[in-house]
Design goal:
heterodimer; A: alpha/beta; five-stranded mixed beta sheet; 20 strands; B: 283 residues; alpha/beta; five-stranded parallel beta sheet; binds flavin mononucleotide; binds iron/sulfur cluster; binds FE2/S2 (inorganic) cluster
Chain lengths: 626, 283
């Protein structure tokens, strides 16, 4: 079948909407839940339905990621909207029996409020979800990503049809410019402006590119969009292609995302069959072909000029700009590269208008942003929030705060190019302008909550190790400078830090920043600089006192038991793998320092906070002073 | 943990019943009815054991065994045959097979023989796969398919790696020739991208995520423990070629951090102290 008018789209939508009240089990089939066994659960659910003769009444649909992966595998019943989490194959028959046969929702698999422990049955009553506003993620969990009709039922391709049939490139660009949409891939460049710069370059051959490389290690916003709603990416690209006059497109996806690749391929195939890609789309005479291109695992290939070299089949090394890709991009032809999430915002701006988009967010940072909230927060996962929300609300309301007994230390934003934001700055609103003042960046959306068990020096070392490894080697300051900084940080974490190291790190950082060609080198020092800025005392403790408070740097800590707090409950002794904790029941315990391997099991096991982390020299010093 | 077994017999019923019997014992069993098909499969997949008939049309079992001994000397072989003349038997034994089972046999006898054979070490050490056994024709076909397409080198390399498991120097040469570009250019690309490996992988490739979300949940301790459990370092392969160990930077399942991936199985929320339990399933 070919779709040639907007009416055809409406017909599909009506056909799908007639099925709106059909009972469905929306089972999550995202990477996280699949890893948790959602395919087996699907089989069991279907078996249960069959046994109860419900096979024709209730359908099981595999959706993309719902964002709440830490609670997966999970499902939502449709249309009643009951949310079940942490499922396993044994849960399936019980859910069919209670929910569908007896008509009683089953509490055992419901989310429980973190404070009251009461079950919450409806998805949108869960704080993790109800504090979010979904734009780029609007179809997550509610459609089958491998079925184009379900996308169309949610007004899919209406924006593309509008752009192709009734808007000029200038009008499209104006709408996107007015909306204030900024690139979601990291730099936050104005999307409409980028399109305009390319549209005015003459040339019959132009390219529209989508960046699905998602290099930030610890973020999965783009993966989730490509898996849960692949058509929205295609639709955004069609609109952009029309705006700049491109007839060919590439989606560059990491090879580590096989499910995203599969779903995108299916989506391209289906769109072609419907005539929404290919020649003469919607009878408008506009042609667009899109090819999926697999990246081969180099972080620097997320950078635009490197990505284009990679598509050309070469080593992905950045090249100097200008000329900018909008003039000379892939195959030396004018090209526009946007991030997956950027494209996912475009169709709705075209449908609802720039004003609507601006009603969310702030003056300079319009709309919403997707973040991958991970680390020590109680509720981790993928969230979408309007710009301007405070960091504290994200951590406390959506993330549900931290586990009891743990203390918030920092929020890492922007991955290896970003920085750490301390507690005292948590009331800052999330906007490009405010975050950059802290030394961090909004970045592509990685957001890691750090608690008292994370060592900031070691974290800086971790990111430097990453950038040093990923440097393409073209610029000496980036290649060698990051190595030198990494070695210094490693020495500090091993207990060989020297006075003056901190200042030297700061100097080196400035050099690398100034003399690197691409963003990788220019931003590589950020994690070090922000941790020095806000956690200088931790660096000093490592260097001067040989003390890693977090107990992460093994040469720099001593685990000991505070006798005044120890109740003699024996929990630590039982947890210790080397049996080096001695003590009678109900009497204070002690750790045999010479046998301790610093595995921190006792620290985690003690409910009374009696296990403490002291400096490496804690006991040595005492001996001297006696 | 089941092992990979291939059954070759021109009698479809024998193949099916062997598959059913061994499958119920937890093995992954494939079956074919000619030596030719068997050779195709063996080139593509890794097996622990081949069970073959002797008398078969076109290529017979003895020829198959000869071919196996020449190309895959480490593969264990069990011969099943209804035609147990001394001469055939002697020929087969001379060809260094592991065991022999006259037809008809009881299911339990088959299971016992198979498991006994599998518990013996392979006849010769499984090579570091450096005996570069790959289908040069398929590789050439891949290069032909993409030769006219610009910028296809990375795609060709990805497909080649899928075919062979890694990219040995010999394969890079063939690709260079097929694509009509210098070997140095191929090598420059292979060495740039971490996805490409010039070393063979173990039967099971263990990947430990070292992305930020996993790292802050002590993924480095998981890596250390796995190195201890396996007795190898990151980037190496165990002596028995069963496991190779790699690190990755985020597989996008951060909600389950810390994460370990073995082939296509993902393990989430891994307890650093319990890495050995994960490996157990594959030993
Ligand atoms: C080292 C480096 C890595 C990058 N990685 C990514 C990435 O993984 N995904 C992405 O969308 N943008 C990445 N970028 C940003 C891109 O260069 C580019 O700005 C972006 O894709 C443009 O799209 P946008 O304007 O829609 O954000 C990276 C930049 C640098 C310097
Ligand atoms: S800054 Fe680093 S990664 Fe970027 S081009 Fe230079 S050497 Fe390569
Ligand atoms: S840190 Fe580990 S080895 Fe040391 S005392 Fe505690 S439990 Fe025992
Ligand atoms: S994969 Fe299921 S919620 Fe993310
Ligand atoms: S950081 Fe390990 S899966 Fe993302």
């Amino acid at each position: 079948m070919t779709i040639s008018t907007i009416d055809d789209l409406h017909k599909i939508k009506e056909r799908e909407n007639a099925k709106l009240n059909d009972k469905k089990i929306m089972l999550c089939g995202g990477t996280g839940c699949l890893a948790g066994g959602s395919l087996k659960i699907k089989a069991e659910l279907e078996k249960g339905l069959e046994q109860n003769n419900l096979k024709d009444d209730v359908k099981v649909v595999m959706t993309g990621c719902n964002g709440f992966c830490a609670h997966g595998p999970l499902m939502v019943t449709h249309p009643d909207g009951v949310f079940y989490e942490q499922l396993n194959p044994e849960a399936a028959p019980k859910i069919i029996e209670d929910h569908y046969v007896k008509g009683q929702p089953i509490e055992r698999y419901m989310y429980r409020d973190t404070v009251t422990r009461k079950p919450v049955s409806i998805l949108n009553d869960i704080p993790f979800f109800n504090n979010q506003i979904l734009v780029a993620l609007k179809n997550r969990g509610v459609i089958d990503p491998e079925n184009i009709d379900e996308y169309i039922a949610k007004d899919g391709y209406v924006a593309a049809a509008k752009a192709l049939t009734s808007m000029t490139p200038k009008e499209i660009i104006k709408e996107i410019k007015d909306s204030g949409l900024r690139g979601r891939g990291g730099a936050g460049f104005l999307t409409g402006l980028k399109w305009e710069l390319c549209s005015v370059v003459a040339g019959p051959e132009k390219y529209i590119l989508c960046n699905g490389d998602e290099g930030d290690p610890g973020a999965f916003m783009d993966r989730s969009i490509m898996e849960a709603d692949p058509h929205v990416v295609l639709e955004g690209m069609i609109i952009a292609a029309k705006a700049i006059g491109a007839n060919y497109g590439y989606i560059y996806v990491r090879a580590e995302y096989p499910l995203a690749v599969k779903r995108l391929r299916i989506a391209v195939q289906q769109a072609k069959e419907y005539g929404l890609l290919g020649q003469n789309i919607l009878g408008t005479g506009f042609d667009l072909d899109i090819e999926i291109y697999l990246g081969a695992g180099a972080y620097v290939c997320g950078e635009e000029t490197a990505l284009m070299r990679s598509i050309e089949g070469k080593r992905g090394s950045p090249i100097p700009r200008p000329p900018f890709p909008v003039e000379k991009g892939v195959w030396d032809k004018p090209s526009v590269l946007n991030n997956v999430e950027t494209f996912a915002n475009v169709p709705q701006i075209i449908i609802h208008g720039a004003e609507w988009f601006r009603s969310m967010g702030t003056e300079k940072s319009a709309g919403t942003k997707v973040f991958a909230l991970t680390g020590a927060a109680l509720n981790t996962g993928l969230i979408e929030v309007p710009f301007g929300i405070s960091l504290r609300r994200i951590v406390d309301d959506i993330g549900g705060g931290l586990k009891k007994g743990r203390y918030f230390k920092a929020l890492q934003l922007g991955g290896p190019s970003g920085g750490c934001i301390p507690e005292q700055l948590l009331d800052l609103p999330v906007t490009y302008e405010d975050i950059v003042k802290t030394g961090a960046i909004v970045g592509s959306g990685g957001m890691v909550v750090m608690d008292d068990t994370n060592c900031m020096v070691n974290l800086a070392r971790f990111f430097l190790e990453f950038t040093a490894h990923e440097s393409c080697g073209k610029c000496t300051p980036c290649r060698v400078g990051t190595r030198v900084m990494l070695n210094m940080l490693t020495e500090i974490t091993l207990g060989n830090g020297r006075e003056g190291d901190i200042e030297l790190l700061e100097d080196l950082a400035a050099d690398i920043r100034a003399a690197s060609l691409c963003g990788l080198g220019q931003t590589a020092p950020n994690p070090v600089l922000t941790t020095i800025k806000y956690f200088r005392n931790e660096y000093e403790a490592h260097i001067r006192d040989r003390w890693c408070y977090a107990g992460v740097c093994k040469n720099l800590c001593t685990f000991y038991i505070d006798e005044s707090l120890c109740t003699g409950c024996t929990a630590c002794a039982r947890a210790c793998s080397t049996s080096c904790i001695a003590g009678e029941k109900k009497k204070p315990h002690t750790i045999n320092q010479s046998a301790c391997v610093q595995c921190r099991s006792c620290f985690t096991a003690c409910k009374f906070g009696a296990v403490k982390i002291g400096s490496a020299d804690k006991f040595k010093q005492q001996e001297v002073s006696i | 943990m089941g092992r990979n077994i291939l059954v070759v017999d021109d009698d479809d019923i024998i193949v099916k019943s062997c598959m059913a019997v061994l499958g119920s014992d937890g093995h992954q069993v494939s079956g074919v009815t000619s030596a030719k098909e068997a050779m195709e499969l063996i080139k593509k997949n890794t097996y622990d054991l081949i069970i073959t008939d002797i008398i078969m049309p076109t290529i017979d079992g003895l020829e198959l065994i000869k071919w196996l001994n020449d190309n895959y000397p480490y593969l264990r072989i069990i011969v099943i045959t209804g035609f147990s003349s001394k001469a055939v038997l002697r020929d087969a034994i001379a060809l260094d097979i592991n065991d022999f089972l006259p037809k008809p046999f009881f299911p339990q006898t088959l299971i016992d023989t198979v498991n006994r054979t599998l518990s013996t070490p392979p006849k010769v050490p499984v090579p570091q796969k450096t005996v570069e056994l790959f289908d040069t024709e398929r590789l050439l076909a891949i290069t032909q398919q993409y030769r006219k397409k610009r910028g296809a080198l990375i795609t060709v390399l990805q497909e080649a790696q899928e075919l062979i498991g890694y990219l040995p120097a010999s394969a890079q040469k063939i690709i260079a020739k097929g694509m009509k570009i210098p070997v140095s250019e191929v090598y420059a690309v292979v060495s740039f991208y971490s996805f490409f490996s010039m070393k063979p992988m173990g039967k099971y490739n263990v990947r430990v995520c070292q992305g930020t979300a996993c790292y802050v949940k002590r993924a480095n301790e998981i890596l250390n423990n796995l190195q201890k459990d396996l007795g190898i370092n990151e980037g190496e392969i165990t002596q028995d070629n069963l496991f190779s160990l790699e690190t990755v930077r985020c597989i996008g399942a951060c909600g389950l951090a810390p994460v370990v991936v073995i082939d296509s199985d993902t393990f989430g929320k891994v307890d650093p102290a319990k890495t050995n339990e994960i490996l157990k399933n594959y030993r």
